[in-house]
Amino acid sequence: MQLKREVPGPGQESVWDYPRPPRVEATSERIRIRLDGATIVDTTDAVRVLETSHPPVYYLPRSAFPAGVLQPAQGASFCEFKGAAKYLSVGSAERSAWYYPSPSRGYELLVDRVAVYPSAMEECEVAGEVVTAQAGDFYGGWITSKVVGPFKGEPGTLGW
Fold first, then answer.
1. 137-147: b (≥16 Cβ within 10 Å) or e
2. Which residue of 1, 15, 85, 103 is 20 to 30 Å from 48, comparing CA positions?
3. Domain of 58: which CATH number?
4. Is residue 125 assigned to a domain?
């Protein structure tokens, strides 16, 4: 696959300008998530993880989710930067979220925060815009009109 970097327009970011190792930054953008016919998250307390070739992943405080919505799920994974992750089910969506119980140094902003796969939710919004889920069954990026690619996860991008 030939990589052709999209040029960001005014107010846009290119995922090819994001760093590796990833940067973690707080954001006050309003994040809303709908699942099982209800809004389960509505918060302005979020953290974005920005990594080369990936759309942002939003980490939300556990306290933003209603009691009982987050349940432990099977599985674990390891990120060379953030450390060991554990998985969660969110409402009826099995194994649809993850968190870092003890993130690596430099990623302490992720403590007590949860990321969800937008593809497993009915709808996710950033600042009122419905997001598109990053392609691929491993990635959890949130694509909005403010972010341009190409994005890792599409067919042929595994080796990037």
1. eebbbbbbebb
2. 1
3. 2.170.150.40
4. yes
Give the Cα-Cα-Cα angle 51, 55, 15 (nearest 5 degrees).
60
Largest CA distance in the chain: 46
Residue 48, Cβ density class (10 Å: 0-12 exposed, 13-18 middle, ≥19 buried): buried
pTM of the model: 0.95
- Is 4 domain-assigned? no
Structure tokens at 123: 């709808």
Q: Provide the percentage of residues in the chain whose pLDDT is more than 70.
A: 98
Contact 101, 84 (CB under 8 A): yes
* pLDDT value of residue 2: 56
**pLDDT digit string, tens, across residues 77-136:** 999 999 999 999 999 999 999 999 999 999 999 999 999 999 999 999 999 999 999 998
